[in-house]
Amino acid sequence: MIIAIDGPAASGKGTLAKRVAAHYGLHHLDTGRLYRAVARDTLAAGGDPSDAGAALAAARALDAKSLDDPDLRTPELGEAASLVAWHPEVRKTLLAYQRAFARRKPGAVIDGRDIGTIVCPDADVKLFVTATPEERARRRYREFKDDGIDVTEKEVLADILARDTRDENRAVAPLRQPEDAVLLDTTNLAIDAAFRAAISLIDAAMGRAGRAG
Ligand code: DC
Fold first, then answer.
1. Is the pTM of this model over 0.70?
2. Distance (Å) from CA 85 to ligand 1 centroid
3. Ligand 1 centre and the CA of 24: distance in Å?
4. pLDDT of 213 strictly over 80
5. How far is CA 4 from CA 16, 80, 114, 163, 186, in A?
6. What domains, with CATH codes, occur in the chain?
């Protein structure tokens, strides 16, 4: 059982994916953390995230045990992750880990930008989670404030718009809604309501898949 959840930055897909995984008793992988960890290691080695060679070296040496690092959520690493994610060689290197994770029993919920399109095109259910940029900025700003990170809501919105543009316009595996994905717009939904909506969409999609198969 594989559930693919894609969507733009701060759409709520990460929180949803975690809760959906707990609900169905599946493993969960937040693939944004892979790109953030590559960005962290590139910078730690004195490299430039825009430099394909430096980012590729970090991707090849990535230690999966370091993915739990709480510092991966900072705005700087979000920005740098979006830069390392631009390099096709980096994406290719991270693909094997993601596909192996998807094969774990009894199944996995994987969230990111290209899960339904590239990583797991045969996923049993595909969800595309979105919200307006303003609402996403509001949510992310509140999270940063709670974590004591000093940014303004305006800066967060500018960062989100820049990241959307970069993630949607890269040549390889750009962010886009897979044709066979179900859309979940969380703009007017608090997290509990979004979770209930996700479960009913997934149950309905699994029911359809069951009848088809
Ligand atoms: O979801 P996030 O904010 O943690 O993702 C950080 C960056 O990583 C995002 O701007 C683009 C990149 N990314 C990607 O290219 N493909 C994925 N499957 C996940 C993240």
1. yes
2. 7
3. 24
4. no
5. 11, 24, 9, 21, 17
6. 2-205 (3.40.50.300)
